[in-house]
Amino acid sequence: MSKMRLFKEAERLYIEEKFTPDEIAMQLDISRRTIFYWKKKYEWDKHLHKKYKSEELFSVELLELTRSFMRKLSNDLENKKTSSQAEYYALTNLIKNIPEVNKYEKAVAKSNAEKQNFHQPLDPKYVRKIQKEILGWEPD
């Protein structure tokens, strides 16, 4: 694989798949130092933040647009005005996408929670259990 392709794949794994630099280095067989260099030089964290911020804004806008359509159609009904079939169709399609937005937001929240837990130090009891069951020795 050419250097440019490796760079693009590393960037994609970091931004799209949320791989850590260590995971990318192992996956692509590139030094960690190279990954960290690319990450800093090409501002991957900035791109990552921008991507997820725009997706978050989109879901908020989608929900607000749905609410706006619902308010308009409710007002039309209350005021005995007729609404176009296109407006009902648009509202129906927006409502269909709300579960997808919710699923996406839950996945992002879960991923963020997992990443936070991953970086926490191991509990001493868990370390002793690993030493005993996997390494086969009793700690002092």
Describe the structure.
This protein has helices spanning 3-15, 21-28, 32-41, 44-78, 85-118, 124-133. The longest helix is centred in the middle third of the chain and has 35 residues, at 44-78. Helix 2 (21-28) crosses helix 3 and helix 4 runs antiparallel to helix 5. The mean pLDDT is 81. It is 79% helix and 0% strand. By secondary structure, it is mostly helical. The radius of gyration is 24 Å and the shape is elongated.
**What percentage of residues falls in helices of 4 or more residues?**
over 70%
Structural class: mainly alpha
Uncertain parts: none
- Helical stretch count? 6
Distance between the termini: 49 Å
Main sheet attributes: strand count, strand direction, barrel closure: none
What's the SSE pattern?
Answer: HHHHHH
User: What does the radius of gyration come to?
Assistant: 24 Å
Number of strands: 0
Oligomeric state of the chains in view = single chain
Q: What share of residues are in beta strands?
A: under 5%
Shape: elongated
Mean pLDDT rating: 81
Keywords summarizing the entry:
6 helices, single chain, 0% strand, 140 residues, mainly alpha
Topology (elements, then pairings):
Layout: H1 3-15, H2 21-28, H3 32-41, H4 44-78, H5 85-118, H6 124-133
Structure summarized in a few sentences:
By secondary structure, the protein is mainly α. It has helices spanning 3-15, 21-28, 32-41, 44-78, 85-118, 124-133. The radius of gyration is 24 Å and the shape is elongated.
